[in-house]
């Protein structure tokens, strides 16, 4: 395990126990948590994106703000739903956020997950072509975005521009060299993992995937990672790809930890359905005393196969408690798993 970061879903709500009562609370606390995580020695601050929900939705202002407040930590998403995105405008925003951060952006993108509304991307002005699916729409947007990140000119300059142009066709600006190598595809199946490898994107796996064999989630994800790396090698890419897994992991080191997570809930994988008729497998939570947690995590084949672990954090419990959750893993668990 080379890198460990956190992943926040950015919830807010009016629950009496919530410390994030508004969108402003979530945004500002997300910045503070990234700063705290960097001070603790964590490697990454990642944020989930959901539309039409009381969760983080527009990632680039947040990523730019985190980039301006931190110096070392990777900042990223897991994931941006490409069905909603204008690929060229997204390339501009991503380029700007990456330049502000000094090249620390790690951008996770994908088809997205279950939604709050029916066909929400249509309200943003997008729809699949005749005979295609919303997954095809996400891939088309991804391909266009990924192509633009090459930084090649493609737009015909005006004959009388407002400002002088460089020679030749023009590209989207600002362009951030190297960003294209830091794009990740959030994959929920072996097939989409192979597609990401062929495209040349890094791989993100979450706490669920299509149930393709009936085996435990971590075993299926390890097989998915192997399929990805085989496809990467077959595609002839020259750089070494990166792979992340997300897990809900809590080291029980005090009474508050035990009260929140020590009751054994979701201690096994479950299966079910989201927004389609494909059975999904949902990963278990890990919550135990540090020594027991080390033993449990050492048996997780997907964690062993990946280079980056993203810890999902209960952001509604506030910055201080989430920082405690991260610190407990970094100090009492991660070193025994080979981190640093």
Automatic annotation (TrEMBL):
CDD domains: Flavin_utilizing_monoxygenases (cd00347)
SUPFAM superfamilies: Bacterial luciferase-like (SSF51679)
Stored InterPro entries: Bact_Lucif_Oxidored, Luciferase-like_dom, Luciferase-like_sf
Stretches assigned to the Luciferase-like domain: 20-257
Alphabetical list of Gene3D superfamilies matching this protein: Luciferase-like domain
Name of a matching Pfam family: Bac_luciferase
Source domain of life: Bacteria
Name by which UniProt lists this protein: Luciferase-like domain-containing protein
Originating organism: Cupriavidus pampae
